[in-house]
Each structure stands twice: as structure tokens, then as C-alpha cells.
Amino acid sequence: MKEKFNKFQIIYRFPIFFIGLFIYLIFKKNFSVFHKQLIYLNYFYNGDLTKIPFASFFFNSQEETGSISQLINKGYMIEEKFLEKEEIIKIYKFISKKINKIKFNRIEDFHLKLSENLKLINNNKITIENEELINEDIFKDIIKKKYVREILDNYFGNKKKIIDILSLSITQNMNSKTIEDSAQMYHYDMDRLNWIKFFIYLTDVENAHGPHQFIENTHKPGEISSKILSYGYKRLDEGEINNIYDNKLIKTFTGNSGKLIVENTKGLHRGKLPKKDFYRIMLTMSFTTSRFGSPMNKIPINNLDQNFKKYLNENRIEFF
Ligand SMILES: [Fe+2]
Fold it and tell me: What is the whole-number distance in angstroms between the Cα of residue 295 and the centre of ligand 1?
């Protein structure tokens, strides 16, 4: 009796199994199609039509490197001509006043004199920050740029925006052994809840000048491998990164002076160390919407001129 029952089971189990498999496959297929449509809907919503099959045929299929949707989706956006030559010269004049105290007429003379001066400064990074910058017209003008306001409004929406880093840095290579404690190793920032950083090149940056690097997508939750997360604040070297991430995702931003990179530095990034006798000048601005997080040096705003204060008020921009 027992044996008969087993035979019966085997005969009927086959078709039941195949019917089950068939239903499962149909469900799985539809589910994945449904899931894909949700993803495409998201691309459509973000204006990233280039990722949708067919749509990319009708719309410009070139990467929109200067769009907010790219900043949201990939973690960075680029504007090649953010600053005009005249604006860069104003900053060079400011640097001359602060560092070499020598007047110059031509940009080449500025660089010649600065590189002589830099050799005398035995430091990889020279930084001029906050209060030393904020009362200079050129830096106020940069903060006031329409392009900056548009990025902030599009990214953060209606919330108030807080400037918590304003920093001008000159990076050179005096002693490469000191790189371990600097931003020249890959790391992710954890200063606040939500922020974006503006990196503005003030010199032409080729490979020798130590370009900024960012690993696409790593600003998104779950995209930094658990191995890296387990290191905590430890900074990572190139070899380790190359083992984990596809080369295509490692973005190296070379470009001319005046180039702007806006980045969500929750993602992995670093500034490469310049080669010997090369240097990079860069302005960094960080904007956040919440003061929650590590205490920062307050930027003193008592002496701000009325016009600038009015602009900040009207646009809901504050200093940390
Ligand atoms: Fe950083």
C-alpha cells in the first residue's frame, strides 16, 4: 500500500512541479519588467532620459555632466567655465597680498613668483580660511553667483543653506611621506547629515598638479563596500580602491582654472598629491542644511557689509 502511494506521488508530482515552475517564471519575468519600469520612471522623473532605452535615441545621449540629476545620481557635477579669467586674477591678487606680497602684471609672473615662494614654505598645504576670505569682494561675489544659488535651491529645495567651509588652499609636494594624514588618500566625509562641496580649480590641473578624484555612485547607501566601512575613518590607498571599484567609476577631474566640481563627498574621494615642483590652487566651499554634526570654526560675520547680509537673508543662506 505504502509503495503504491509513493508511485502515485511521483507520477503527479512531475506535472505539479512543472506547472509551479511555469507560474514562478511568469511571475518572475513580470516582476522584473515591473521593477525595470519603476527604475525608468525614476530616471524620467530625474530628467535622466539618456538611461531609458528608446528615449535615449530621441534625446541627447551625451552625458549631462552639469546637471543636478547627475549630482543626485552619480554624486558629482561639473561646470568647466565657472569662473572668468578676471575673477581668477582677483584671487591671485589676494594670494599675492597674503603670501608673496609682490605685485604682478602677468599671470605667468604670478606663478613664477609664487612657485619661488612655495619652495621656501616647507609645507604640503597652505590654507587661507573663513574670516580671512569672507570680507574680500571676490569671495562674496562667488557665493552670490546665480549658478551657485540655482544649484543650492535645486539640490536642497526650500531649506536654509549654511556655509560651513570656505577655504582657499595651495597644495604642493614637499615631502610625500606626510601624505597619510591628509586628504590625499581615499576617504569619505562624515561631517554632517547632508551637504555638498564645491571645489573650484584656480590653476590648470593636469595629472601632475594633483587632480581631485571621486568614485561614482559611492555617495549612495550601500555602495561603499562593507570591508571599507569596517575600516571606519581609515584612509585608503589606490591599490585597495582599484581592487574594489571598476576603473570606469573612478573619475579623475583634470581641467582648466575656473572649473567647478560639485560633489556629494559622502562618496569616496581624494585630492591626488601633486608631483614635485607642481602645485594646485583650489577654493572649497561646503554647504549644508543642518548644524548637526562635528563642531566647526564659526565664520565671524559681524563685519559683513549690509548688501551682502541682505543677499544672504533674501536667499536663506547663513554662515555656520
Ligand atoms: Fe574629504
Answer: 16
Ligand 1 center from residue 37 Cα (angstroms): 36
The pLDDT confidence band at residue 217, using thresholds 50, 70 and 90, is: very high
Q: How many residues does the chain have?
A: 320
Closest listed residue to residue 198, CA positions, set 129, 261, 156, 104 = 261
The answer as to CATH 2.60.120.620 being correct for domain 68-319 is yes
Contact 252, 199 (CB under 8 A): no
Q: Which is it for strands 76-79 and 260-263: parallel, antiparallel or unpaired?
A: antiparallel
Return d(Cα 74, Cα 76) in angstroms, integer: 6
* CA of residue 185 to ligand 1 center, whole Å: 9
pLDDT tens sequence across 258-275: 999 999 999 999 999 999
Per-residue pLDDT band for 65 (boundaries 50, 70, 90) equals confident
Q: Ligand 1 centroid to 288 CA: how many Å?
A: 15
How much distance in Å is there from the Cα of 270 to the middle of ligand 1? 6
**How many angstroms is it from 88 CA to the middle of ligand 1?**
24
Q: Report whether 174 contacts 124 (CB < 8 A).
A: yes
* Alpha carbon distance 38, 266 (integer Å): 26
**Residue 205 CB neighbours (<10 A):** 26
Q: What are 34's three cell numbers?
A: 515591473
Q: How confident is the model at residue 159 (pLDDT cuts 50, 70, 90)?
A: very high
Q: Residue 246 Cα, ligand 1 centroid: separation in angstroms? A: 21
List Cα–Cα distances, 116 to 10, 83, 208, in angstroms. 88, 26, 18
Cα–Cα distance, 272 to 182 (Å, whole number): 10
Q: How far apart are CA 238 and CA 189, in angstroms?
A: 17
Give the Å distance between the CA of 186 and the centre of ligand 1.
8
Quote the percentage of the chain above a pLDDT of 90. Answer: 52
**How, if at all, do strands 317-319 and 161-172 pair?**
parallel
